[in-house]
Fold each of these.
Amino acid sequence: DVKVTQSSRYLVKRTGEKVFLECVQDMDHENMFWYRQDPGLGLRLIYFSYDVKMKEKGDIPEGYSVSREKKERFSLILESASTNQTSMYLCASRGGGQESYEQYFGPGTRLTVT
Amino acid sequence: GQNIDQPTEMTATEGAIVQINCTYQTSGFNGLFWYQQHAGEAPTFLSYNVLDGLEEKGRFSSFLSRSKGYSYLLLKELQMKDSASYLCAVRDGDYQLIWGAGTKLIIKP
């Protein structure tokens, strides 16, 4: 079974703090994704990565950055947290073959910025 | 623009059948996913349709009509554990998925 883990289930940070969210997958997947999920809105893609050290902006990259130094790990960084970044953050991974478009999700990190 | 519409909430009775609709308008189409998400948990994969028609998988079936920009998820013999949100997503290009806001399904005894 594919396993995607995230470093924290719940996180409370203060405005202006730098925040690191970590995601690790154990299936040697090439592609990894960071989403945020807010009530009444669909999952919105922040960034994705299709290879080590490669990254692409998603729909809402402003205020975020990412790092992928190893294949299994994809980090999301909030350089200076703001209250409008309070949300559920979901990490996902996907294999690289054309037959495997399914994304596997981690349990999510509920971030509150006060 | 890119748009995926699903009903916000539906209610059904244990043991019954429910159909959750999804309509989409996207610049590209390479397939449509359905995911299930229980409250506070990660989305989990249910189905993936690329071609028109009905695909059945146990109590769950998913239908796609590409010409109509329409899909539905059919859940039979509803159980209390089916209470969850159901997310529709379209694969637009190679990597990105466009997600609907999800349909919250409430099952009553």
Note: DSSP finds no helices and eleven strands in chain B.
Amino acid sequence: QVLLVQSGAEVKKPGASVKVSCKASGYSFTSYFMHWVRQAPGQGHEWMGLINPSDGSTNYAQKFQGRITMSGDRSTSTVFMELTNLRPDDTAVYSCARGIRLAHPSDYWGDGTLVTVSS
Amino acid sequence: DIHLTQSPASLSASVRDSVTITCRASQVIGNSLAWYQQKPGKAPKLLLYFASRLQSGVSSRFSGSGSGTDFTLTISSLQPEDFATYFCQQYYLSPLTFGGGTAVEIK
């Protein structure tokens, strides 16, 4: 079955960086894009961008340009999302979610990784 | 960015009730709208896509309609496992955006 297993919770100080991983299994890793979505406490979901694991191409939401890097490792079927210069309002649950392409919904999501930014 | 307004933000209903949730887009999105169900601490589950297409394995109690800017999710004959939060997503234009969610609670 399709599984997206994410790395564990992180606590970071303002100005630090965080790198969250998402290991995929149960399907052809390079046949699906991987989105990253976050949800801050009490807020709605926010799309951050996506990566095409087949060629490493990315499409980031403008809001995160300059602070976000998505990458992939085909040998381990893992994608990564790194966010730099963290602020307290970056505190959220970060989730990976696969999609057949950008203009398509996500049929499987990871369980999410809580990132807490606090001094 | 396309803004999605969901209503109501929460509702209370009983088992076997039928409920309807609406999602309004700030501009035309064709039928590029999905609905998800999420339970506390769990990953979202895709219910419907292209506004009305039922995802494989999802109960036929869930149905969707709409196009353009106005969309609805209807859950007929609510079951205990249906009490959750529901949210919409548009994938017509980047950045993809989401509605604020509707919590369906037991009356």
Note: Chain B has a mean pLDDT of 97.
